[in-house]
């Protein structure tokens, strides 16, 4: 499988017009994947002090503004929506996109926004229990079944999902947990997404996912592998960018930096290559607006084509 390149976009600190202009430009210039994140407050957390849009409404615009790229959400927080409503929305966006939508699910992490808006945010183990029930329901609906199910936070009585997706509407699972996230990915998912991991950590997790797939009786090749890398390319000195990331992310900064692109766009090839070697099939840059259009254009128009050539040789 040829390595693909995408953009994971934070829908914050930019106007709707600016976001739509950006993803239309990305789609017209050959990126393979465009996704939005599912937050109500800014990330990294800043107490709801920065403007931020809601994911589903913006995904509808993304679906109709683009024509070529696969689109999705990496990932929807399992705590924020009734699973029937979530699946109805996903299928609606899939039809608006002509069958290009891919659904991502995760247990969530942004407790600050959850508490602010009154969403239940139990322990990680409890959130995993909710998520697994949701994954089971989604896959039953994707198979065209009516669903009766009683599991944590999921109560369904002969629930039909019509229309169904235009195609298979691939299901992604996002996260870094080796015992639960990867186990569930091996059972339920068509794709696994990791965010902000080092190449070594990504390789280790990729191998663990292979084992979980085999335990579930699946060929590991059935599960696509992707990585989100924080887009920190800049004209500033790398040390300045590192300090900024440390200030923004606090205790999580070491992990974020290990999964970040730093320096100029031309430096990205050397930083991305270890992830491809570790098994990543889709490389997404995670953009937190505002963005430098000149630097981004260099990455999309010059660096991505170079990587397509270089990595096709590696994979041949």
Automatic annotation (TrEMBL):
Is Oxidoreductase given among the entry's keywords? Answer: yes
Q: Could you tell me the Gene Ontology terms of the biological process aspect for this record?
A: alkanesulfonate catabolic process
Supply the alphabetized keyword list. Flavoprotein, FMN, Monooxygenase, Oxidoreductase
Q: What SUPFAM superfamilies does the database record attribute to this sequence?
A: Bacterial luciferase-like
Question: Where do the Luciferase-like domain residues begin and end?
Answer: 13-237
* Protein name stated in the entry: Unannotated protein
Q: Which GO terms describe its molecular function?
A: alkanesulfonate monooxygenase activity
The record lists the organism as freshwater metagenome
> Pfam families per the record?
Bac_luciferase (PF00296)
Q: Does the keyword Membrane apply?
A: no
């Amino acid at each position: 499988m040829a390595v693909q390149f995408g953009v994971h976009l934070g829908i914050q600190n930019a106007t709707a017009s600016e976001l739509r202009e950006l993803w239309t430009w990305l789609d017209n210039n050959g990126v393979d994947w465009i996704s939005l994140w599912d937050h109500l407050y800014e990330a990294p957390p800043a107490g709801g002090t920065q403007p931020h849009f809601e994911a589903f409404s913006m995904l509808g615009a993304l679906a109709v503004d683009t024509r070529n790229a696969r689109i999705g959400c990496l990932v929807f927080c399992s705590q924020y929506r009734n699973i029937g409503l979530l699946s109805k929305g996903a299928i609606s966006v899939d039809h608006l996109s002509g069958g290009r939508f891919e659904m991502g699910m995760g247990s969530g992490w942004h407790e600050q926004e959850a508490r602010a808006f009154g969403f239940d945010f139990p322990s990680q183990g409890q959130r995993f229990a909710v998520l697994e029930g949701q994954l089971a329901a989604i896959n039953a609906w994707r198979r065209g079944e009516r669903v009766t199910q009683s599991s944590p936070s999921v109560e369904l009585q002969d629930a039909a999902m019509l229309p169904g997706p235009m195609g298979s509407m691939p299901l992604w699972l996002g996260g870094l947990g080796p015992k639960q996230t990867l186990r569930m990915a091996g059972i339920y998912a068509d794709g696994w997404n990791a965010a902000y991991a080092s190449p070594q950590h990504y390789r280790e997790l990729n191998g663990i996912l292979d084992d979980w797939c085999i335990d579930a009786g699946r060929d590991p090749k059935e599960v696509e592998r992707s990585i989100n890398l924080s887009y920190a390319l800049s004209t500033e000195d790398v040390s300045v960018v590192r300090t900024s990331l440390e200030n923004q992310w606090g205790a999580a900064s070491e992990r974020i930096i290990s999964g970040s692109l730093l320096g100029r766009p031309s430096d990205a090839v050397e930083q991305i290559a270890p992830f491809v070697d570790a098994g990543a099939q889709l490389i997404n840059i995670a953009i937190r607006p505002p963005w430098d259009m000149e630097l981004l254009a260099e990455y999309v128009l010059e660096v991505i084509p170079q990587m397509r050539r270089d990595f096709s040789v590696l994979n041949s």
